[in-house]
Design brief:
about 500 residues; mainly alpha; Hydantoin permease; two-stranded antiparallel ribbon; about 65% helix
């Protein structure tokens, strides 16, 4: 095994040897972690019983998958990650929006994974060996998990793929055993002491659809390209990759989340998940639980850190992927400590997920519309202008920004933030929407309408793709021209 040398540059065709089944390995193996399992607990903590929680998770995951899965096809054509690929729609500088969104999403989910896995590890070790449940113990476990996770992320794609293949089998077996371990205490009722978080059933159920269900697929809006950039469109059809992505997302998210719902009602997890999960576990299941908390967390957080390293590499072209990964690993570890020792984890996590969903959804919608309009044809080299510290090229638009696409994203995000309802913030549009959180639907609809209205015409395509370009590209022809290298200082 060698450390991966590629960052967000174009993957050579000779190295694009992965297959669609690798997507399923990534999406199932990396998601069978307590950091994903805990999203199955969220509906229960909102006051929902088992079956309402299940229906909200299934509904949100299916809707989110329909929107997110086509994004896997973008990097199949560009041979680079999704944030860099979004330069075709937002401009080679405007694609930094995608890098920032991806960085924030992955940062939050990495911290969440390490936090939940670390808590479960400390509790399991305390019951198994009598180790003190102290601040020093938590700090040590968090640090060990962070170092192991950073190591996997630094080595990169091939090591993470091998780890995901092992975890897909091993973690599935552990979850099946866990279902039997907690089955004697299973009930369909919400835990004692919980009530509908937003006051009534339907608004709380809809909150669960967005916060627990939709948030799962939305977390992958910038990640899917990390896998498909290593796949060749000459060997694998778009249809097959789309279908396997759908299977991977649905199975990889629902298996752990439904396990989380099942165990949450079984152990009566009202305000905390990891603590009751460990306390109520049969003694014989503590070792499997310890393995799930440790290896599962490293696999899940490793992929998130890997994606964060690519995004930071795209934002700061002077750095390398390895240095960027180490930097974001340190930042994620700091957030883990804050999440445990400072914040109200449940409220902070729920609010973070909903706010990022409202901002990330418009970006994903615009990228998908642009992909459809250019018929999947891109100029891969023109997308690399910023990484080469040059100017010009097909996607230069106006000083590197497609202003109309950026405006459409900003409008959709603003409407989404005004319509979001979280435990820490309620948008001013929520009362006018019957108390429902419709931020996901509104932000998607508004950004799509604004982009189609403002951009109009045809999309800029790669060589041999759809002819012509959007009005913004034609009007900015004087700014584009050939690519020109910028002298290094």
């Amino acid at each position: 095994m060698q450390i991966e040398q590629h960052g967000v540059d174009v993957i050579p065709e000779a190295e694009r040897t992965s297959s669609p089944r690798d997507i399923v390995s990534f999406l199932i193996g990396s998601n069978l972690a307590l950091g994903v399992v805990i999203f199955g607990w969220l509906p229960v903590s909102f006051g929902l019983g088992f079956w309402p929680a299940v229906t909200s998770l299934v509904a949100g995951t299916l809707v989110g998958t329909v929107l997110v899965a086509p994004l896997a096809l973008v990097s199949l054509r560009t041979a680079t990650n999704l944030s860099t690929s979004s330069g075709a729609q937002f401009g080679v500088r405007g694609r930094l929006l995608g890098s920032a969104i991806g960085l924030l999403l992955s940062l939050g989910y990495t911290a969440l994974t390490l936090w939940v896995g670390g808590d479960a590890m400390v509790g399991s070790l305390a019951r198994l060996f009598g180790l003190p449940d102290s601040a020093a113990g938590y700090a040590l476990v968090y640090a060990v998990l962070a170092v192991c996770t950073a190591g996997c992320a630094v080595y990169g794609y091939k090591l993470l793929l091998r780890l995901s293949r092992v975890l897909a089998l091993g973690m599935t077996a552990l979850l099946v055993v866990g279902a039997f371990a907690y089955a004697p205490h299973f009930t369909t009722q919400a835990p004692a002491g919980t009530s509908y978080l937003l006051g009534d059933f339907w608004t709380t159920w809809l909150l669960s659809v967005v916060a627990a269900g939709l948030s799962g697929p939305i977390a992958f809006i910038t990640l899917l390209g990390d896998y498909t950039r290593y796949m060749s469109p000459a060997r694998h059809s778009s249809r097959r990759i789309y279908l396997t992505t759908c299977v991977g997302l649905v199975a990889g998210l629902l298996i752990p989340q439904l396990f989380g719902t099942f165990t949450a009602v079984a152990v009566g997890a009202a305000t905390d998940y990891a603590g009751p999960l460990v306390r109520e576990a049969p003694f014989w299941f503590l070792v499997p639980l310890l393995l799930a908390a440790s290896f599962g967390s490293v696999g899940n957080a490793g992929l998130m850190l890997y994606s964060m390293g690519l995004d930071l590499d795209a934002i700061v072209p002077r750095t390398t992927r390895t240095r960027a990964t180490c930097t974001v690993a340190a930042l994620a570890t700091a957030l883990v400590f804050l999440g445990h020792f400072v914040w109200d984890a449940q409220d902070a996590m729920t609010s973070f997920v909903l706010l990022l969903t409202a901002v990330g959804t418009p970006w994903a919608v615009i990228v998908l519309i642009g992909h459809a309009r250019c018929r999947g044809s891109y100029d891969a080299e023109a997308l690399q202008v910023l990484n080469r510290r040059s100017v010009g090229g097909r996607y230069w638009y106006t000083a590197g920004w497609h202003l109309r696409a950026t405006l459409a994203w900003a409008v959709g995000s603003a409407v989404g933030l005004l319509a979001v309802d979280t435990p820490l913030y309620t948008g001013p549009l929520v009362p006018h929407l019957g108390g429902f959180d419709l931020s996901f639907l509104l932000s998607a609809a508004v950004s799509a309408s604004a982009f189609l209205l403002l951009a109009g015409g045809r999309a800029a395509a790669g060589p041999g793709g759809a002819p012509g370009g959007p009005p913004a590209a034609r009007s900015a022809a004087r700014d584009r021209g050939p690519e020109v290298a910028v002298p290094r200082p």
